[in-house]
Amino acid sequence: MIYSASGIRLPCVPSVYRFSQSSFNGARRNISFSLLLKKDQFSRKIFAQKSSYDSDSSSLTVAASKKVLVPGGQGDGSSSLTDQLESPSTISDDPQVIHDVESEKMQDDEKVEVEEQESVPSVLPNNDEEACAKEPSVPLNRKVSTKKSEAKPRSIPPPGAGQKIYEIDPTLLGFREHIDYRYAQYRRIREEIDKYEGGLEVFSRGYEKLGFTRSKTGITYREWAPGAKSAALIGDFNNWNPNADIMNQNEFGVWEIFLPNNADGSPAIPHGSRVKICMDTPSGIKDSIPAWIKFSVQAPGEIPYNGIYYDPPEKEKYIFKHPQPKRPKSLRIYESHVGMSSTEPIINTYANFRDNVLPRIKRLGYNAVQIMAIQEHSYYASFGYHVTNFFAPSSRFGTPDDLKSLIDRAHELGLLVLMDIVHSHASNNVLDGLNMFDGTDAHYFHSGSKGHHWMWDSRLFNYGSWEVLRFLLSNARWWLEEYKFDGFRFDGVTSMMYTHHGLQVAFTGNYTEYFGYATDVEAVIYLMLVNDMIHGLYPEAVTIGEDVSGMPTFCLPVQDGGVGFDYRLHMAVADKWIELLKKRDEDWKVGDIIHTLTNRRWLEKCVAYAESHDQALVGDKTIAFWLMDKDMYEFMALDRPSTPLIDRGIALHKMIRLITMGLGGEGYLNFMGNEFGHPEWIDFPRGDQQLPNGSVIPGNNYSYDKCRRRFDLTI
Fold it and tell me: Name one GO molecular function term (predicted).
């Protein structure tokens, strides 16, 4: 792996284990190091001095020794889809108020117009320089104009009565006490947000005040770290001197510093330079990547990532050119992963995905692409699910502007772009993640065992915390606002909604499983809030929840008393196909298949799939492998006859997808490569792993051979 930013390219060593807490207080160099100043020659480049969206990227070609017959019918070996589917008790009573609405962000085409409005008192301390300047601050990567224009108001409807769900499903009346309590708590939090924050619309713009923001006179950096005893901003810009830029803390635990521009008018922190926050915490001195960082990279010879101050010159910022498509009547989703989308054993880039994979997706008949592993994650083999930097797009694949170019190209092709967002848990990493950020166990997460997911080895958010709500709601809005994603697939929602996280529990459909002490009401309320915010501000946006439990009201509007998702992933369908493929043909019961495909709640839409990325991972088997196994390698070539096993496998592979699409739900999903029966599994590069009991799980010597998609094998 090689990473760079505007000129310098950083080869990266794989990180394969959880980092323990340590300090970044190594010897300070007298010469400030900027990631923008030097060039080195490496064999593979992701970031270039000239962004990749400014030039055509070459196509990837791989010579294949054999062309194969595949269970498709198109010239690229894939079946083209038809248009058939188209016909919280812990909330503080005195929550932190950190908004300062001296200005209101408005979007006019791709410019943010700033219009002066009546000021609301802020509890954040203001430096004299800022107070004198009276300059509105804006998030990085935004074009700013002080020209006054008329606002395009966007509002989130007030809470409804929350009673319509009982008309839709009278069975819920038996659990009215729990459901009405849930809705009452939701209404209370909405009212408190209105009272203390100016409404959910303002509350969800935390990125305009926290993290790095810039005005004409300088840069302001704010960080919520109530457990820290002292804090200082350090980086290349001040030679990592912890005594140079000391931060001040307000009564709500927010640390702040203002860095005025240099004498020549340039910003105090150069674009592309490394930054961290140095804190004296109850756990000792520690340097952390800012929680709201917008970009991070892994430097040569280092394992932890470094936060990057990302604020390129205006001429280098990508400007969106194409409107976002309208939401289709039904979704046909192509689930994808940028890094493994190459035919070669490498980490692919946003640019190559844009140029080589998006046209394929469009040609196959899909109307949406769902992209995994966007949020930065230091451990590649986590599939993007152990997030370390929630506001930063993964630097493995390119720059933030490269990602914007990818999304804009998808919109040009008429494709919705859905992001696989992870708000169900976070990486355990201390050095480059949120874990123990301010030196305490209960900062963003629950303390003790409640804050640890024993199976995923990750941290669990405290959805009853005011500032956690601000962080997560703002995170969802950031990706919609800044990158123009068209919606989300929320990962691990079942784990969020229950204190048992859905582990070692068999959901039978009995309503007592959904409305009782095992339900994490605070997490459900967060899901209601985020759906409220998304659908209120972005009416065309799509939200899909990964829920295996079958939670009633999951896909009903929040105003009616529901959780608010547009779709639920119909996860039982894939399990049913695997169950059947283990049986003899004569034991398949058509009635049982039809029941599973059509067994979904009234008025709650589902996205069905025969298989997703889960079935493609090493240790599992895809449908093609279940059907044809090792015969795929010997009897699918054009220069030799096939076998009855291959003929049967190709036929059933198509039929399974046809009936799943026709009966399984109001939307359909396929993981990239599975449409033509990809012959190999997914195995991320990894080393040997030693378990606590002393046993060792063998690795693959950090090989990328099985971490790619062999599109070159199709005919």
Answer: 1,4-alpha-glucan branching enzyme activity
